């Protein structure tokens, strides 16, 4: 529809009809089979308003969306189609690794391909918008939503944010793909104590320097929507925060797309204690230019009264409604309310072989080899050694993680299935060995009934039987593979935990088998960095596989048996202890740095009972090759506009590898303190066996900009150090002067 027609449509709407476009309700309100009395009454939405609601939350499927759209348009006087928005975070039916695993690929181009597939599958399923990517910076592994983030570094997160938005919205103007809604704006990942929905409080400098870049990258990549975050910034909840939403997002960044609140976040302004009631909450949110109120009655019931009382200008509502109508128009909904979603197209699109093949490739690149004592891995598929797979994740298809609501675990390749494709049956045995958790009581909060919870737990007899069988098989095995990890529901939203070791029941079980003195391999399944300090001491090889997605078992087996040379590098630090958190590589030096202070041993910045450094650092990951870095050279010892940086990398093994070469800098003295290291560039390249490569980076003056003491985004001349290496700790270094 042409712009002028859209404006005429806006003018033709009543205030109730306009307000309706700013309200989003979940699927049960559009239940076509029965009148939705319950939820409607509970939320306080009138029948009249229900007729005008503009968008639907978390309904997908071509048949479902078409039926609801058809029913809705039949009753709509202005025939404004509904927008269908859903959480399609890292996969629709073909589920990729969780984003913390995608971050470990250090391969934004590959992840863009994955998100193009996600957009195609979701579009075929009738979704118009996805609440993705989630680009919150995360530095505290206690927070369950690390799962959805690509990690602790704003530069790396920005690269993935841009790739994911571009993938989802590929050919959007040709009605392909779906609109991207970046979230959660802003700084939700800095929740104090890693506790879900907790306070966020930081300087504007830290917000701009560390937390905002990835959202900005998504906006610059053209994301159509932004979702507000639950947290406060500087004492004001973001959903009602004019500084964040209006001053920065709209005025500074020029974002003129749709801002949608997170779930009930408008009404939660009351719980925060910044609004007396629904009307005040609506007032704060609409003035902050939040356009859509997700799943709360505030806009629905209070915007018109605010208008009639003269407390808000009608222009605020008109601007918000126009942004929603433009989004619907950009998606071609006025011409085709179904966006070509048909059950036939859906059937032929979902879980296509090439989608599975891509998922396997992405998963393989997400796997991080954390330890490989004496080169135990890769295993020889022709081996006549006896291999035992034990643990709750051995024969288990629950590998897609919490936020894969449209995926099916029944599509998933288990680790058992993956390994079976390599080994002769007589050399491979599987035992569950132990339960996943000591207790499943916590699932009650997610609606599990007592019977369901009871059915999940093993009886004492079952526990004894499984242990007995595992010990018996382990005694005759040569190699034991432990498939262990946290439960799906122990991470993701509302999944904050203070004990992030492997579940005690699993650790006790492993200890008993480790005493047998066999070669051991741990496959760790998690949505966050776990504390693997004990396992790093006692297990011979450790693979971090995250929640690996639909093709998990195949990709894990390919790495185990060497078809894939692991190339994953951590995008989030793994701590020695939960007590170190928050933990990240780009920390400040402090006045008493551990290694260079003039003060005596005790009186420096450290713990009495833990190292400062992580167990496994940002950027870390092993492979099956043998790679050496040497000859770091700079084109000059002074830099004005740019500096050429060369490094030699030798693969002295016969095994080809994918190597992620990382370039960090340190601004040694600034007008404010500066991090000990900052990632500035990285290259993931293939290095054939027995070859040597020279890698060149061109560092530019702009890359050295930061928020100075005066809050100008600028460079300051002086001493800099360049670091190049395979991770944030093992680096070659050289100095230069910026002039
Ligand atoms: C949830 C999440 C958000 C999600 C939204 C809709 O509470 O915070 O990430 O997109 O509600 O389901």
From TrEMBL:
SUPFAM superfamilies per record: (Trans)glycosidases, Beta-D-glucan exohydrolase, C-terminal domain
GO molecular function terms noted in the UniProt entry: beta-glucosidase activity
Catalytic activity: Hydrolysis of terminal, non-reducing beta-D-glucosyl residues with release of beta-D-glucose
Enzyme class per UniProt: hydrolase
Boundaries of every Fibronectin type III-like domain copy: 659-728
Listed InterPro entries: Cellulose_Degrad_GH3, Fn3-like, GH, Glyco_hydro_3_AS, Glyco_hydro_3_C, Glyco_hydro_3_C_sf, Glyco_hydro_3_N, Glyco_hydro_3_N_sf
Keywords tagged on the record: Glycosidase, Hydrolase, Signal
Name of a matching Pfam family: Glyco_hydro_3_C
Known EC number: 3.2.1.21
Family membership noted in the UniProt record: Belongs to the glycosyl hydrolase 3 family.
PANTHER family given in the database record: LYSOSOMAL BETA GLUCOSIDASE (PTHR30620:SF16), PERIPLASMIC BETA-GLUCOSIDASE-RELATED (PTHR30620)
Protein name, entry field: beta-glucosidase
Taxonomic source organism: Enterococcus larvae
């Amino acid at each position: 529809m042409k712009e002028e027609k859209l404006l005429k449509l806006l003018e033709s709407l009543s205030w109730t009809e306009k307000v309706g476009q700013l309200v989003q309700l979940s699927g049960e309100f559009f239940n076509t089979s029965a009148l939705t009395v319950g939820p409607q009454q509970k939320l306080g939405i009138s029948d009249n308003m229900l007729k005008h609601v503009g968008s639907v939350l978390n309904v997908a499927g071509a048949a479902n969306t078409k039926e609801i759209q058809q029913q809705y348009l039949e009753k709509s006087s202005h025939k404004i189609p509904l927008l269908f928005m859903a959480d399609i975070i890292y996969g629709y039916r073909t589920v990729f690794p969780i984003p913390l695993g995608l971050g470990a690929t250090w391969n934004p181009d590959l992840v863009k391909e994955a998100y193009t597939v996600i957009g195609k599958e979701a579009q075929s399923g009738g979704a118009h918008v996805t609440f993705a990517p989630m680009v919150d910076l995360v530095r505290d592994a206690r927070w369950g939503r690390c799962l959805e983030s690509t990690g602790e570094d704003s530069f790396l997160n920005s690269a993935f944010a841009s790739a994911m938005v571009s993938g989802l919205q590929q050919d959007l103007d040709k009605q392909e793909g779906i609109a991207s809604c970046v979230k959660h704006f802003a700084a939700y990942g800095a929740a104090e104590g890693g506790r879900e929905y907790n306070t966020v409080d930081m300087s504007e400098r830290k917000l701009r320097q560390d937390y905002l870049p990835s959202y900005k990258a998504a906006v610059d990549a053209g994301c159509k929507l932004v979702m507000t975050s639950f947290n406060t910034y500087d004492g004001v909840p973001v959903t009602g925060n004019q500084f964040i939403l209006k001053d920065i997002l709209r005025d500074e960044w020029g974002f003129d797309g749709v801002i949608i609140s997170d779930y009930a976040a408008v009404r939660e302004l009351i719980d925060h204690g910044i609004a007396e009631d629904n009307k005040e909450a609506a007032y704060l949110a609409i003035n902050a230019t939040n356009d859509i109120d997700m799943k709360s009655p505030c806009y629905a019931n209070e915007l018109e009264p605010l208008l009639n009382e003269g407390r808000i200008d009608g222009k605020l509502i008109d601007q918000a409604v126009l942004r929603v109508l433009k989004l619907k128009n950009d998606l071609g909904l006025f011409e085709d309310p179904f966006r070509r979603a048909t059950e036939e197209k859906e059937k032929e699109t979902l879980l296509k072989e090439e989608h599975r093949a891509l998922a396997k490739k992405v998963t393989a690149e997400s796997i991080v080899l954390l330890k490989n004592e004496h080169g135990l891995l890769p295993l020889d598929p022709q081996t006549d050694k006896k291999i035992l797979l034990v643990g709750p994740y051995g024969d288990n298809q629950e590998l897609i993680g919490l936020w894969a609501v449209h995926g099916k675990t029944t599509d998933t390749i288990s680790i058992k299935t993956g390994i079976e494709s390599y080994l002769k049956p007589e050399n491979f045995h599987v035992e569950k060995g132990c339960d996943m958790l000591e207790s499943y009581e916590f699932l009650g909060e997610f609606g599990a009934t007592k019977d369901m919870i009871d059915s999940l737990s093993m009886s004492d007899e079952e526990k004894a039987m499984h242990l007995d069988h595992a010990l018996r098989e382990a005694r005759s095995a040569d190699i034991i593979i432990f498939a262990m990890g946290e439960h799906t529901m122990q991470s993701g939203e509302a999944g904050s935990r203070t004990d992030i070791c492997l579940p005690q029941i699993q650790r006790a079980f492993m200890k008993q088998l480790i005493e047998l003195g066999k070669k051991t391999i741990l496959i760790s399944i998690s949505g966050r960095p776990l504390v693997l300090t004990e396992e790093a001491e006692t297990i011979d090889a450790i693979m971090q596989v995250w929640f690996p997605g639909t093709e998990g078992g195949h990709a894990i087996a390919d790495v185990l048996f060497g078809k894939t040379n692991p190339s994953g590098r951590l995008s989030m630090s793994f701590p020695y202890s939960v007590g170190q958190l928050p933990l990240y590589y780009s920390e400040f030096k402090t006045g008493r740095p551990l290694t260079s202070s003039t003060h005596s041993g005790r009186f420096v910045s450290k713990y009495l009972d833990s190292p400062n450094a992580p167990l496994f650092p940002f950027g870390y990951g092993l492979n099956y090759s043998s790679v050496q870095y040497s000859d770091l050279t700079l084109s000059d010892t002074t830099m004005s506009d740019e500096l050429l940086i060369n490094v030699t990398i030798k693969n002295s093994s016969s095994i080809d590898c994918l190597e992620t070469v990382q370039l960090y800098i340190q601004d040694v003295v600034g007008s404010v303190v500066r991090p000990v290291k900052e990632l500035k560039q990285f290259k993931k390249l293939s290095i054939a066996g027995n070859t040597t490569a020279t890698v060149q980076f061109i560092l530019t003056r702009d890359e050295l900009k930061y928020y100075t003491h005066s809050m100008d985004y600028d460079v300051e001349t002086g001493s800099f150090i360049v670091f190049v290496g395979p991770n944030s700790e093992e680096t070659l270094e050289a100095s230069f002067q910026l002039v």
